[in-house]
Amino acid sequence: MGFADFVTDAGLSMLESWVTSRSYSKARYGPSQADVASFKALPGPPKVEKYPHAWRWYKHMVSYQSEFSSLPGDPSKAYTSYGPEKSEATLNPKDAPNAAADEDDEDDDLFGSDDESEDEETKKKREENLAAYKKKKEGKTKPAAKSIVTLDVKPWDDETDMKQLEDKMRGIEMDGLTWGASKLVPLAFGIKKLQVNLVVEDEKVSIDDLQQQIEADEDHVQSTDVVSGTNRDCSHTFD
Predict the structure, then answer these.
(1) Handedness of CA 188, 190, 194, 195 (dihedral sign)
(2) C-alpha torsion sign, points 73, 234, 230, 60
(3) pLDDT in 10s for each residue of the chain, 239 residues
(4) DSSP 8-state class, residue 213
(5) What is the pTM of this model?
(6) How far, in whole angstroms, is CA 225 from its chain's centroid?
(7) Residues 198 and 230: beta-carbon distance below 8 Å
């Protein structure tokens, strides 16, 4: 059957269910033209409150946009060629665990089918290989999806103590938040804003919540703005 129209709730629910237990639209270990076609079919990022897994997948694909043309697969295929074969298995996200079971069945196929005609030795060898493969697979931990964000922090006026502002800002501690380099950037009339880089784990840190905590320092901070942000499933440290 494949994906439905992503401008509808049914289509987005189908995508949400599909990527709940998968990192990519088709390939298991990396992005492909299936992801490119699906990404381009979306009018924009899904709502994170309603479709958190689809939003995570979308943000991850943003980091691959410069590589879209070089990703493996057939770029001529429509996004509806990918996704679930049965709509009832995808329209309800609570059914997503079934997808994991299907993936286990695919693992079984990697080592041959459980045919009654197999002799005992062949069957035993196949089961040993499958058990070793699954053990190795379970031992791999997926790296957390992280975003690299640049924030502008604006003071009230040219008399604001920017060192105190930065000290209070860096005093904010959140699990999954890493502060990076910062610099003062001239605005106007002698006023300078603080521009700071940071890395956040997407599932642990909300940028909106972080901005609210920074802006809670009303003695120094007038406002904050997100200048830029990129996402990639990898570890990152600032120089």
Answers:
(1) positive
(2) positive
(3) 688 888 899 999 999 999 888 888 887 678 899 999 999 999 999 999 999 999 999 998 998 899 899 988 898 999 888 888 754 444 444 444 454 445 455 444 444 544 555 577 777 877 887 777 777 766 666 667 888 889 999 999 999 999 999 999 999 999 999 999 999 999 888 899 999 999 998 888 888 899 999 999 999 999 999 888 765 544 333 34
(4) H
(5) 0.40
(6) 22
(7) no
